[in-house]
Design goal:
The chain is an all-alpha fold. About 45% of the residues lie in helices and about 0% in strands. The protein has a domain of about 70 residues. Helix 2 runs antiparallel to helix 5.
Length: about 120
């Protein structure tokens, strides 16, 4: 087998686009996610809303850290957050008064949902 034949049958290493990395092999980035780490359960939007929100919020924070999702782009984090919150909560979230800019930020979205599920109460003495 000649050198030309071996070159034509082997596939080249994948490359990443861009001027700084043109022609260099791509480096895959993997995060270690325990196979038994649970995905957050969707928020239950009936019953004790405060307790249900707190349960989901804690699960979500743990999930983001354990899966390194907190290190990802805002777009990926937000898509994951909306997916994990469940249909009922997403329908509620879409009705929450939040700016377009804030609706693209996970922290602002969790703050808006917290305000919905745990409204401030006035205490009169």
């Amino acid at each position: 087998m000649s050198d030309n034949e071996s070159e034509s049958t082997s596939s080249p290493a994948p490359t990443t686009p861009g001027p700084a990395t043109s022609g260099t092999p791509a480096t895959a980035v993997y995060s270690h996610v325990p196979s038994n780490f649970p995905i957050p359960a969707p928020i239950v939007c009936k019953g004790n809303l405060v307790a249900n929100w707190e349960f989901f919020r804690q699960q979500w924070e743990d999930y983001e850290v354990a899966t390194a999702l907190d290190k990802q782009t805002s777009k990926i984090r937000l898509a994951s957050f909306r997916s994990e919150m469940g249909k009922d909560c997403l329908q509620t979230f879409l009705k929450v008064n939040i700016s377009v800019e804030d609706s693209n930020n996970v922290e602002a979205c969790t703050t808006a949902l917290k305000s919905y599920f745990k409204p401030q109460r006035s205490v009169f003495l």
